[in-house]
Write a structure and sequence with these properties.
With about 140 residues, this protein is an all-alpha fold. Helices cover about 65% and strands about 0% of the residues.
């Protein structure tokens, strides 16, 4: 009697939906796009991931442009990041991660360290060159 071997397909760990949305809001839609790109690359959807990365960069630019309008302020920045992050997360997870709960989750520590290191570096550069950190 011949036994067939069962193929065990382990799912790659991914960054969760709420974690990506949080990174979009508290850092930038581009940062959340990088995390989504990593998720899509891990499941073999690199072309889609590249498109998501480009769209997230566009959302980051739009967020910056909104900050330069007369409606600027922390509320405008927060709401625009929330809306753009929600568009990214809901569209991508609704399409490619229908069973998000079945994927193992990646830790948030590495992206947090990178995010805070980038912010610290930018603050150090701004203070070195005398660029005000608070709009005048």
């Amino acid at each position: 009697m011949m036994f067939e071997e069962e193929k065990i397909t382990e799912k790659s760990p991914i960054y969760g939906k709420w974690m990506i949305l949080s990174f979009c809001v508290f850092f930038s839609p581009a940062f959340g796009g990088v995390l989504l790109f990593q998720n899509l690359k891990d499941i073999g959807q690199k072309k889609v991931g590249t498109l998501v990365l480009l769209v997230s960069m566009l959302f980051a630019v739009l967020t910056s442009l909104l900050a330069a309008t007369p409606y600027k302020g922390y509320g405008t920045d927060f709401i625009s990041k929330l809306i753009f992050g929600a568009i990214l997360v809901e569209f991508v997870f609704g399409r490619y991660f229908l069973d998000e709960d079945s994927y193992p989750k990646k830790s948030a520590s590495k992206p947090l360290i990178i995010g805070f290191a980038l912010i610290l570096g930018l603050v150090m550069i701004a203070t070195y060159y005398g660029i005000p950190l608070v709009p005048q």
